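Inputs:
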Amino acid sequence: RSSAKVVAPLGCLASRQKHTLPDLPYDYGALQPHISAEIMQLHHSKHHATYVNNLNVAEEKYKEALAKGDVTAQVSLQPALKFNGGGHINHTIFWTNLSPNGGGEPKGELMDAIKRDFGSFANFKEKLTAVSVGVQGSGWGWLGYNKEQGRLQIAACANQDPLQGTTGLIPLLGIDVWEHAYYLQYKNVRPDYLKAIWNVINWENVSSRYADCKK
Amino acid sequence: MSSRSSAKVVAPLGCLASRQKHTLPDLPYDYGALQPHISAEIMQLHHSKHHATYVNNLNVAEEKYKEALAKGELMDAIKRDFGSFANFKEKLTAVSVGVQGSGWGWLGYNKEQGRLQIAACANQDPLQGTTGLIPLLGIDVWEHAYYLQYKNVRPDYLKAIWNVINWENVSSRYADCKK
């Protein structure tokens, strides 16, 4: 599973904690039949773990480049930071967005906001589904919060581009539409994966993220 | 009485240069015309079987020779532009493995500079349309291209795919570029 590691100070470099793979809040098989255990295991223990490891490596190199004042190296490392950092951020959110006790509809303030900003829950669900299905290539569909305008907003991001880092929207609910998120079970039929995932959305988590935004 | 051979122009096959195959020439007289000195039976077999077989086999051999020449040219270009085949293979593998997200690794031809070039494209961006390079060999690294078999281990898929590259096809695409 995961382990917290503190890296001892290396000479003049500040000591820092490496990023670690967060534990999954439920068993690999807990989201079946909607998302298979095989997918969950590969997705968490291989894909997310790789983003974590590669982020740590990239940060280590970036730290050296900063120390040396090597701007060229810094710039050349930025794609790796964006990709692996985004991957770590996105998946960390994603695991909490899902739950074996999920599904149904949200309540309270989040539901009110959804109705206000999308007309109805059905409208919102249809729109986020369409945006997620429509991502060309690898990416994510997102429900985000636009703090400036005080409203919910749906967006898509390519690859592992983190929502907040690239759009400013605060991530509430992410739908991973990289093929590794569904292919073993749904093959090329991404819409079937989308239909299924609504059964395991953890509305408590999405609601508490929303509540946090508005503080 | 039979007039035999037919001249065939082989329609250009995509990138292969059009060329006339060799054909069996007509006999200028009937099979029996040289009797009693050379029998009709001999003339028929000699012309329609023996000579015909030389024509067919020559065409086959020339085709293979042309392919070998083409492969040779591509190999020369690879050595010239990448140092060695191993270097080229390593580079295209690294570029393909390194694609972030969905995309393709490509061996392309840079017509302006007259050299081979390796490139990656995102999603389904076509190589020529977006970079001007002429596509010779593409490696699909969208997850759907390998996930069911290799799961997240894209490098294993890359290792395997080298076993099924059609070098004849790549060579003939290269030959076509240089016309």
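Chain A touches chain B at residues 42, 46-47, 50, 79, 83, 136-139, 158-160, 178-180, 183-184, 187-188 (CB under 8 Å). Flag for discussion at group meeting.
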